[in-house]
Structures are given as C-alpha cells and as structure tokens.
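Backbone-to-sequence.
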C-alpha cells in the first residue's frame, strides 16, 4: 500500500475514520442517495409525467422551491460533499479507496461546475453570453440531465466503495483502524 494510505488522522477526524466511520458513512450515504433520488424524481417529472422543466423540482423542491433556485444551496452542497468525500476517505483502503477516490475526483469537477454557476449568480456575468448561469458542460447538455448524470457518476462509485469497504479484509481494516464490516465481538459474560 502507498504510504499515503497508511497515514491515519488523529483526534475527531481519526474517530470519524475508525470507531465512528460506520455511522458517519451511513449518514453521509443517506444524504447523498437522497440527493440523487431528488435528481431522479426531477427527471421522472419531466420525461414520464411531461412536466415543464420549470415545474419539475423533485420531491422536496415542490414545497420548498428555493431548494432548486438557490445557487448558494447548490454550491454549498457540492462543497460539503467534496469535503466529506475527502474527510471520510481515510477510513478506506485497497480497492474501496480507489473507488472512493474516483468519486472524489468526479465530485471535484462537479464542484468546479457549481462554483462557476455560483460566481455567475452572484456577479451577473454569464458564461458564453448565456441568459442564465451556465456551467461549462451545460453548454452541451441541459442542466437537469447534466446534474442527474454528475450525481449518478459520483454516487455509483461511492456505493461500490462502501460495498467493497464492508467486505474488506482484516488487513485493510487494520490499515485504517475502521471497524466497518468486522464481526461484533461478543460481550464477556459476567463471572
């Protein structure tokens, strides 16, 4: 294993990647998959139900339209996701770490695209003379489809990483200090 995989953080970050990794990872994955499901719901509303794009806001976006229209919120989510992909990666080793790093790399680009949208929303400047804030790849692919794609290609490697992580060898768990997937130790009987 490369030396970088052997370096374990200490303190709170060390705990997030060892004794609390299972819970931190579970909470993070529920949020990520929930967000992905919102993008799937929005695409379903457009392509299966025939709703206009402006009305297709996913499930939570219907009662809370600001969830769709706020570039602050979108950029904030992209940044927080990037940070947690970085922080929680120390709990992974071997093949699971490779898949997690793939998700991290893709999310880094996704974050750059959201940063570009955020800057445009705050400044009034528009990329390539567009009428609305537009990301680079959005010049080629409509925003709804693009962000469904981005969330899909970030979430799937994360799921693969978690499955591989939960099935990791004892040696990989030893490298990280993580207890995810290890059998529970039986409690000692009172003597």
């Amino acid at each position: 294993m490369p030396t970088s995989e052997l370096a374990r953080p200490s303190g709170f970050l060390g705990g997030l990647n060892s004794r609390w990794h299972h819970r931190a990872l579970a909470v993070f994955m529920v949020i990520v998959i929930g967000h992905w499901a919102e993008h799937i719901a929005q695409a379903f509303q457009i392509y299966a139900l025939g709703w206009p794009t402006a009305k297709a806001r996913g499930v939570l976006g219907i009662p809370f339209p600001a969830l769709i229209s706020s570039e602050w919120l979108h950029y904030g989510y992209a940044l927080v996701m990037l940070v947690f992909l970085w922080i929680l990666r120390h709990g992974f080793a071997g093949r699971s770490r490779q898949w997690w790093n793939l998700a991290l790399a893709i999310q880094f680009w996704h974050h750059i695209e959201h940063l570009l949208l955020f800057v445009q929303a705050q400044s009034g400047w528009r990329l390539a003379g567009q009428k609305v804030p537009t990301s680079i790849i959005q010049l080629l692919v409509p925003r709804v489809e693009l962000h469904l794609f981005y969330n899909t290609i970030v979430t799937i490697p994360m799921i693969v990483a978690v499955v591989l992580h939960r099935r990791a060898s004892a040696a990989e768990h030893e490298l990280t200090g993580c207890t995810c997937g290890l059998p529970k130790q039986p409690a000692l009987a009172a003597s």
